[in-house]
C-alpha cells in the first residue's frame, strides 16, 4: 500500500512553535528504519512521527508486532489517523497525542506489557537531548534494546566523536553504547534546516551500575563549565576545602576547566569524589 505524502506543513504551529523539520527523502527514511533491525516480534515506539515518513516505511516494508507513535501536534495526529486508518483499525498501530517528555515511560511500557522495545525518531533539534536522556535513563535496561534517532550533527559529535569531555557524553555513555551511522543533508528536509543532521544508533547497556556518581559529578563541574573546576564544585554546594582536597587527590589543577579534562583525569576525579562524599 502506498500513502500520499501531502500533509500540510505550512502551519505556523508546527513550523515555528515546535521547530519541526520534516524528512522528505524516502530513501533516507528506508535506511533509518533498516538500522533498527526490525524483527516480527518487535515493539517499536516512534517519537515525533511528524508526517509519517518513517511510520510508512515500518508499516509497508517491515513485519512488526506493534508500532506506537507519539506526536505532540494534534493537527498532525489527525492527519496520521486518516493516513494510516487501516493499520490503526487492525491494532498494529497506536497513535498517541501527547508530549513524549511528559509521559511516565516505565508505567507506559508496563501497562502495555511491552518488553524489548526499540525506539525511533527524527527528533526536534530543541528537544533531542532531553528525549535521548529520558529514553536511556528512564526505561529499565531490560525493557529496551536499541534506538535510532536523527539529531543535529553537532550534538551527535558531542556525544561520540569529540575528545573533549562534556556532560551529555558522560551521561549517554553511562547508560548506552552507540555510534553515528550517517549524516543527512539539509536538502532532505522541509522546511530546510540550517544544519546537517546525523542518524545515531544507541544500544542499552544490560549491566548498568546503579552507581551514578560519575553523572552527579559531571552535572556539578559542567554546570559552570566556563569556570574553574574548583569554582564549579564550590558553586554547586561543595565545601571549598573539601573540593580542593578532592582535586589534589586526583592530581588535577584546581584552575583547570572541565572541558580540558581527559577521560583518565575525569575517572581519577570520580574516584576521589566518591571517597570524599562517603
Write a brief caption for the model.
By secondary structure, the protein is of the alpha/beta class.
Textual characterization of the structure:
The protein is of the alpha/beta class. It has 2 domains: 193 residues, Rossmann fold (3-Layer(aba) Sandwich), CATH 3.40.50; 65 residues, rRNA adenine dimethylase, C-terminal domain (Helicase, Ruva Protein, domain 3, Orthogonal Bundle), CATH 1.10.8.100. The chain is built from 13 helices and 9 strands. It has a 7-stranded mixed sheet, with helices on both faces. Strands 1-8 form a two-stranded antiparallel sheet. The longest helix is centred in the last third of the chain and has 15 residues. It is elongated, with a radius of gyration of 21 Å. The N and C termini lie far apart (61 Å). The relative contact order is 0.11. The N terminus is likely disordered.
CATH topology of the largest domain: Rossmann fold
Distance between the termini: 61 Å
CATH superfamily of the largest domain: Vaccinia Virus protein VP39
Order of helical and strand elements: HEHEHEHHEHEHEHHEEEHHHH
Work out the count of structural domains. Answer: 2
Structural class: alpha/beta
* Major sheet summary line: 7 strands, mixed
Query: Spatial order of the strands in the main sheet?
Result: 4-3-2-5-6-9-7
Q: Averaging pLDDT over every residue, what do you get?
A: 87
As a percent range, the share of strand residues is 15-25%
The amount of helix comes to 40-55%
Number of strands: 9
Q: Which stretches are poorly predicted, pLDDT < 50 over at least 5 residues? A: 1-16
- DSSP helix count? 13
**Gyration radius over CA:** 21 Å
The shape is: elongated
- Please give the CATH architecture of the largest domain: 3-Layer(aba) Sandwich
What is the CATH class designation of the largest domain? Alpha Beta
Amino acid at each position: 500500500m502506498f500513502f500520499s505524502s501531502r500533509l500540510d506543513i505550512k502551519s505556523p504551529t508546527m513550523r515555528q512553535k515546535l521547530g519541526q523539520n520534516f524528512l522528505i527523502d524516502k530513501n533516507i527514511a528506508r535506511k533509518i528504519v533498516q538500522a533498527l533491525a526490525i524483527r516480527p516480534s518487535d515493539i517499536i515506539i516512534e517519537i515525533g512521527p511528524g508526517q509519517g515518513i518513517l511510520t510508512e516505511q515500518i508499516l509497508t516494508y517491515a513485519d512488526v508486532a506493534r508500532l506506537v507513535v507519539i506526536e505532540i501536534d494534534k493537527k498532525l495526529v489527525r492527519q496520521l489517523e486518516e493516513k494510516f486508518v487501516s493499520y490503526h483499525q487492525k491494532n498494529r498501530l497506536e497513535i498517541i497525542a501527547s508530549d513524549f517528555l511528559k509521559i511516565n515511560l516505565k508505567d507506559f511500557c508496563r501497562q502495555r506489557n511491552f518488553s524489548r522495545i526499540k525506539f525511533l525518531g527524527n527528533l526536534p533539534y530543541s528537544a533531542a537531548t532531553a528525549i535521548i536522556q529520558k529514553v536511556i535513563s528512564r526505561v529499565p535496561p531490560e525493557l529496551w534494546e536499541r534506538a535510532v534517532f536523527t539529531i543535529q550533527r553537532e550534538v551527535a559529535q558531542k556525544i561520540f566523536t569529540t575528545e573533549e569531555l562534556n556532560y551529555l557524553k558522560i551521561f549517554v555513555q553511562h547508560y548506552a553504547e552507540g555510534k553515528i551511522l550517517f549524516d543527512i543533508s539539509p536538502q532532505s528536509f522541509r522546511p530546510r534546516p540550517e544544519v546537517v543532521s546525523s542518524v545515531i544508533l544507541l544500544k542499552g547497556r544490560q549491566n548498568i551500575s546503579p552507581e551514578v556518581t560519575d553523572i552527579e559529578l559531571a552535572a556539578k563541574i559542567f554546570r559552570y563549565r566556563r569556570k574553574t573546576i574548583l569554582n564549579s564544585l564550590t558553586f554547586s554546594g561543595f565545601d571549598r576545602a573539601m573540593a580542593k582536597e578532592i582535586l589534589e587527590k586526583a592530581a588535577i589543577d584546581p584552575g583547570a576547566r572541565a572541558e580540558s579534562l581527559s577521560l583518565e583525569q575525569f575517572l581519577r576525579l570520580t574516584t576521589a569524589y566518591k571517597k570524599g562524599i562517603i
